[in-house]
Amino acid sequence: MGKSNPLASGANSITVTLQANTNLAQGSVVTISGLTNAAVAGGASYVTLTDVGNNGGSLFSDGATQRRGAWSSGTLTLTVHTGQTVTAGTEYIFSFQVTNPSGAQNAATVLIAASGTVSLASVTMTTDTPDLYGVAEGGKPMKVIVPSFSASLIGQSTPIADTTVTMSVTLTANIDFPTGSKVTIVGL
Questions:
Q1: Cα–Cα distance for residue pair 169/89, rounded to 1 Å
Q2: Residue 60 near residue 79 (C-beta atoms within 8 A)
């Protein structure tokens, strides 16, 4: 499992890669739980699944509508859609959007399990991107931080009127600033 954004209140694209060791036939259910405090647009009871690899999103439905997953309190329930099979040994990848909570939180333990034509015991999902935006463990599921400056200092070279003044600014943030980011200093 991967994600796009560790920042509080930010839109977050969750990417799921799954590979079963047995076929999961139509009607089987895959449950991903533990997406602590994630919210979906408008408080909907579903998320839209986007195909990323091997038509991963197309395999599933919310029980009725293909490319949707049922959503409830941080749990995503995926029903293998009519006429579809999750084929053993094939890697499927899909993504869906959530909104991060407004406050900081540690990474969640996200579990995946399957039931139906065959039962697959619950296992912990892992991530291959431990850090994101310079945030330690920022790539882990539902790790969220509130961006802030841990140091913000400003000084001037002289207080004398009608002279050239050099302003010195020191900033230290708890995240990396990607190219194109802007920092605004007001009140000068």
A1: 55
A2: yes
